[in-house]
Specification:
The protein is α/β, with parallel strands linked by helices and about 525 residues long. The protein is built from 23 helices and eleven strands. The longest helix has 21 residues. It is globular. The structure holds S-adenosylmethionine and iron/sulfur cluster (SF4).
């Protein structure tokens, strides 16, 4: 059990709303009251873009080359230059950018896509975000907090039937489901061993990432002590004025500075894999992307560690709100694809997550736009995995928003394999201490990508043997043959060691990694 003696407890929503935020933990990271999201500079860059209209092709090519060779985060002004390339008006130049984004993705992450599942633990919330089905005032939402026994039932489906090994655990913000509850749910996930319904071999969740509200340093240290993976907090919008319109001042989430400084506190607490994100559709997407670059650069400046991942959630329909349909800033699929290319070039080393909010067509399309992670067989209703036999079943009043891509993991793995992409279930990184700054350097040089390739092959073998349909297994076997041949060519001396682990995995040993 996690030691929670160092953290504060709150018994009422009122007390929580009034006292949860620690002002000194904000001020520390905004020296002289100056915010690292320089909104004046963003407005200036957008005005320049609006007046210029046409990109400077030579400058664009220079920036692409810089991103590709250095793998360092671009300057906001460089991202702004790339933003001038409109795929409709400059299709050839945009295609050069897309191809470079794909090459960078391959250099850093090879031909792998990492898969995971969202697991919603609770939809109690003390906030009032206007786009979200969980907001406190939404009486249509059916409220529920998973007990540890119910969580075990969810894990039995996720690990025993679907074969997931990596989760993003998601929580509303509420005094009863804050740090102590989050820590207990993480521990429950790690402790559950579940036999595969197909092979009978034990499977387990090996990495639990968390998407929750910003926390103080002491609370983050508790999550670190139970082995949290990445801590994700989406900024929703970096535009302070629009942020204030969407998040009422009476709510905890209404504090823009508490949210924007959250990752600085994470780093201070030793939680050095952090996941940034913007809820696209709340503001001009150019504003959001420029601010994301500023956020990444400030983390690098303070800690020499940038975001482990960027996520690209888009507004989806949700219970009791019209914002997702009526926001003036909604983006289409073409813009979504453009954002991904710009993000890959702007923060070249980062993981990029595209969730099942997207339609299948939109997700298929951006696979070669720099993305590295996706979820599948997802069910985001609270207790949805164990209650619904059919994974595609959705209930608006039991979930935060509606999903666009209900494909099963078997279908997704088969689709990825058919285009030569290996599905990775690897979770070795944080268990070998490859997190934060340590993994940043390896990613920038492309070393991590090669390491992970071997672990991807081993975990893919596990999943094919324990969970795949015959059809998917056949396609997967062919891909593995090709990957092993590639490893033999690339690492002839190390190859016999790799094969030893591979053959042990084929015999049924599990969780072998480098
Ligand atoms: N409640 C915590 C918070 O807001 O900080 C944890 C995150 S919340 C459960 C998960 C994320 O879902 C939010 O940060 C937001 O970006 C996203 N979200 C909320 N409403 C959405 C909607 N209608 N469509 C798509 N994503 C939405
Ligand atoms: Fe609560 Fe998060 Fe939804 Fe806001 S986005 S209402 S904080 S669950």
């Amino acid at each position: 059990m996690a030691d929670c003696s160092s953290i504060r407890k709150f018994t009422t929503a009122e007390d929580y709303r009034k006292n949860f935020i620690i002002q000194s933990e904000i001020d520390k990271y905004l020296p002289n009251g100056k915010h690292f999201i320089d909104e004046d500079e963003i407005v200036r860059l957008i005005a320049v873009m609006d007046s210029r209209k046409e990109p400077d092709a030579a400058r664009v090519r220079e920036i692409i080359a810089k991103s590709e060779s250095s793998c360092e985060t671009l300057l906001p002004s460089e991202t702004a230059e790339l933003m001038l390339v409109d795929p409709k008006k400059n299709p050839e130049l945009f295609e050069e950018m897309r191809a470079a984004a794909d090459r960078i993705k391959h250099k850093v992450y090879d031909n792998r896509i990492v898969v995971f599942a969202p697991l919603y633990m609770s939809n109690l919330c003390v906030n009032g975000c206007k786009y979200c089905g969980f907001r406190e005032a939404n009486s249509l939402q059916k409220r529920r907090v998973l007990t540890m026994d119910e969580l075990k039932e969810e894990l039995d489906v996720l690990a025993g039937r679907i074969g997931h090994k990596r989760l993003i655990a998601v929580y509303g913000e509420h005094q009863t489901t804050s740090t102590e509850y989050i820590a207990e749910t993480i521990e429950t996930c790690y402790n559950r061993q579940v036999p595969s319904v197909k092979s009978g071999r034990k499977n387990a969740i090996r990495r639990v990432n968390v998407n929750a509200a910003p926390l103080p340093v002491a609370d983050l240290k508790v999550l670190r002590s139970v082995g949290i993976g990445t801590f994700q907090v989406f900024q929703e919008t970096y535009n302070r004025k629009l942020y204030e319109q969407m998040h009422p001042a009476w709510s905890v989430k209404g504090n823009y500075d508490w949210r924007t400084t959250c990752f600085h506190r994470c780093m201070e607490a030793g939680v050095d894999d952090v996941g940034l994100g913007v809820l696209y559709g709340l503001c001009d997407w150019r504003y959001e992307l420029l601010a994301t670059v500023m956020h990444a650069r400030d983390l690098e400046r303070w800690f020499n560690i940038g975001p482990h991942t960027l996520s690209f959630p888009r507004l989806e329909p949700a219970s009791g709100t019209k914002v997702p349909e009526e926001s003036p800033w909604l983006i289409d699929d073409d813009t979504f694809a453009r954002i991904l290319v710009l993000a890959r070039l702007s923060v070249p080393y980062t993981g990029m997550i595209v969730t099942a909010r997207e339609s299948p067509a939109s997700r298929n399309r951006v696979l070669d736009h720099g993305m590295t992670q996706l979820d599948c067989s997802s069910n985001i209703a609270i207790k949805g995995y164990s209650d619904f036999e059919n994974e595609a079943h959705q209930e608006k009043e039991r979930q935060q928003f509606m999903l666009g891509d209900n494909r099963s993991i078997d279908e997704m793995v088969r689709y990825l394999a058919s285009r030569g992409t290996i599905t990775s279930f690897c979770t070795a990184g944080y268990r070998c201490g490859r997190t934060g700054g340590c993994i940043m350097d390896a990613l920038k040089t492309g070393r991590e990508g090669k390491f992970c390739k071997i672990n991807a092959v081993l975990t893919f073998r596990e999943w094919l043997d324990d969970f795949a349909s015959d059809e998917t297994r056949k396609i997967g076997d062919k891909l593995i043959e090709k990957e092993l041949a590639g490893i033999k060519e690339w690492l002839p001396k190390f190859y016999p060691t790799v094969m030893k682990q591979y053959e042990a995995t084929c015999r049924g040993e599990r969780d072998l990694f480098f």
